[in-house]
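Good morning,

Both structures are done.
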Amino acid sequence: MDKHFLEFWGNLLLATAKGQAQLEDLSQWMAQGMSGSQQLNALFRKFYGVDRQTQAADPLFDTARRAFEEAFRAYLKALGAVPQSDYAALEKQREALQKKTDEQEALIRKLRLELSESRLAQGDVVRGFQELVQVQSEQFQKLTESVGGFFAGRHRQDKHEE
């Protein structure tokens, strides 16, 4: 782990033992891009060897800030903690996924309902078709019987005439 970070952190923890305000100041200081708190700025500059005249936009300060942030993330990871920014990003992603899941579940319910309704409608069509075939079959049977009866009657008539 970064030597400068450990020195900074150790001194911060010693100072924090004097009051809770230090941890709240640290959170605000980091959220503001390491600006705002003169005490934390002085501590940071001391342990990271950044001159007081170096501005926050200076590449040297930026390099030290990135090194501090990487060391801080490594420290949190070792403790099993997650930075609040990472947590917020994951929470936002979880909410988006939950919304998507809810929408997909609603769509699935709707499609299942439509499918069951279409199956019922298909069943009605099939039943109607079966009834039509049955009626046509009965009518055809009657027609063949009557045609058969007609020809059978003519056949008997022809035999009597001979």
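Second structure follows.
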Amino acid sequence: MRKKIIFSMIFAAFALLTEAANAENICKLYPHWDCSKSDQVATLNKFEDFIAKHPQKGLAAFDWDGTLYDEHIPLPGKPEETRSCQSVWHYWAANHLSKYPYLFPSFKTGQGNLNEQANNIKRQDDYIEGQVFQPASSTDNTWKLFPMGYDKVAQIASFEAGMSLDQMRFGITQYIKDYSPTRYGFTKMLDLVQRFSDTGFTVWIVTGSNPYYLGNLITAPGGVNASLNYHIMTACVPSQKNFPNFSKNCFISGNGAKVWQDKNGTYKFSAVYDDRFLKEEINENQRSSVGNYGKELVLRQLIKRFHKPLVFYAGNSDGDYFAMKMLLEQNTDPMGIFVQPDLSHSTKFKDLLLSKVCKDRCINMEQPE
């Protein structure tokens, strides 16, 4: 009897040591997770089991704002108001035109007044973000004025019109000195992007933001890779020298403008919407890669392009609903991650998370930091 008790104690101790060793090893792969917490270790084991189940790998897609990066960043000059990182970049640039007057040249006035140019930039961003209020009548009532559908994404895409790739990259390099990714990147989720990239998945970021902006935010000096010690999206360097590689090999789908070369061979942004991520799927009802089922159409095109199934998607709002629904309805043993979803407003997302199709396939990441 005593021998059995001793053996059981030894076995239990060995099991604990083995479990601790496994936790230590897995945490080396996900350095921003807290492996002193059993629930986090359990989630990481789910990730590793998922990776093991897909030896042929597949497509893994991530939303950006609110999924991989904070979308509630204090606005320059208006700290009580928060917006996405791209919107904050617009405001920051408007406040620094005296140093970098070549930023956002399409907002220049005939008189070349920098204050007026700055106000034009801010007003346009306010409009895109639905923060312009107009009198509804002669009364004190007001209503929001903002673009919708293709009108909105086309204006997001054309914001940089007339600016060169190198001018944008240098400007963002200065911007992230004030708004470092170390404060706003969701490192737990970025760890997963890195892990999927390292294990052979074809990883895409599918976003409503400008892909050139995100490419710089990730790869520029002081950006996500440099400041947080990642090596993701390394082909996404939208510079004069690297543009041919960027246009072919950067796996970020978003709302950007087409790039052209001037008579000196300088790559510059046009005011024409770049629809290349929807070339095969575009129709009269869906002309952009976000809104309604835009992200789903982008993913369907990527499935055709790479001849791989979509096996993973991470998002945080109703804007990701159709992409997530498409993923979960496939027979690919998929995984979906709902990142800090605001279920009080994201009604469709909430219904999907609570549905049968999501059972054992979904993870609710309430704390992405």
